[in-house]
Design goal:
The chain is of the alpha/beta class. The chain has 6 helices and 8 strands; from the N terminus they run βββαβααβαββαβα. Strand 1 and strand 2 form a beta hairpin. It is globular, with a radius of gyration of 17 Å.
Length: 268
């Protein structure tokens, strides 16, 4: 496995350079590409970053680099690997997602992909991704963290329900994390042992006030430490600086609160 060198922290709004070479990791139904970001030499806690529906692309690498700069080794897998490579399941280079019309056009392509990431497939992938993270040079033994965005918040929540070494979960502008369906992620929280942090988008039809209330009730029912909030004025996708949904205030708040969660539960 050809591993990526030390990642550098970037804070710009939109990536202006190509991504570093991706690594390949074993997954439940094949091989998945992944971004690796690290703070440098030495041993550090591990973090899984679960991408949004737009795919594994430079913005995800930027976010992984920023988390790595806090003192963590970060692995961000292409959770759409069953459908194609990262390049095939991400926007083409000539598409500008900061244009609302082009963002909506790509949404028509990406949304059907989300439905293929079922509970069964997610739970099958989790142990493979955790093993791949732990196999990276410089990852400390002990608890790990996970953070997810949009559909990745569902993935992160499910991961904590099946992987006991996950001590911290961040979920931001999550979609359908607590529905009335029998496979809703919140129904598995009785098996989780993590501390949770959710930053919901304001007026988000994919995570309505009823869903937020349902999620909060489940976290409380199972005695899980949790901080949840609806970020004022933040649209769905507010952390994604390469799209028209970006809101700097919400994105920076999420980084601040996620960093505090990881420091409290994982150290650095």
């Amino acid at each position: 496995m050809d591993l990526d060198p030390s990642g550098h922290a970037t804070h710009g709004a939109v990536a202006s350079v190509a991504m570093r070479p991706l690594i390949e990791i074993p997954a439940a139904d094949g091989t998945a590409e992944a971004v690796v970001a690290r703070p440098g030499d030495g041993t550090h806690p591990g973090v899984l970053l679960c991408m949004d529906a737009i795919g594994l692309r430079p913005r995800i690498e930027e976010m992984a680099d920023r988390i790595a700069s806090w003192g963590y080794v970060v692995l961000a897998p292409n959770t759409f690997y069953r459908l194609g490579t990262a390049a095939e399941t991400s926007p083409p280079a000539d598409m500008d997602l900061t244009d609302p019309e082009q963002r909506a056009e790509f949404g028509k392509l990406s949304m059907p992909r989300v439905g293929t990431l079922t509970q069964e497939r997610t739970e099958a992938d989790v142990p493979h991704f955790v093993s791949a993270l732990r196999a990276l040079p410089g990852v400390a033994d002990g608890p790990i963290g996970v953070t997810g965005y949009c559909m990745g918040a569902k993935f992160a929540t499910r991961a904590a329900c099946v992987e006991p070494s996950i001590a911290a979960v961040g979920g931001f502008h999550g979609a359908h994390v607590a529905t009335t369906e029998p496979d809703s992620p919140h129904l598995g929280l009785g098996s989780a042992r993590a501390a949770f942090l959710y930053g919901h988008a304001d007026h988000d039809q994919t995570m309505t006030p009823e869903m937020v209330e349902r999620l909060d009730a489940a976290l409380a029912e199972h005695g899980l430490g949790a901080t949840t909030a609806v970020y004022p004025g933040a649209p769905h996708g507010y952390t994604m600086a390469d799209t028209s949904s970006y809101q700097e205030e919400g994105a920076e708040r999420h980084f601040t609160e996620l960093k505090a969660l990881f420091e409290r539960t994982l150290g650095a």
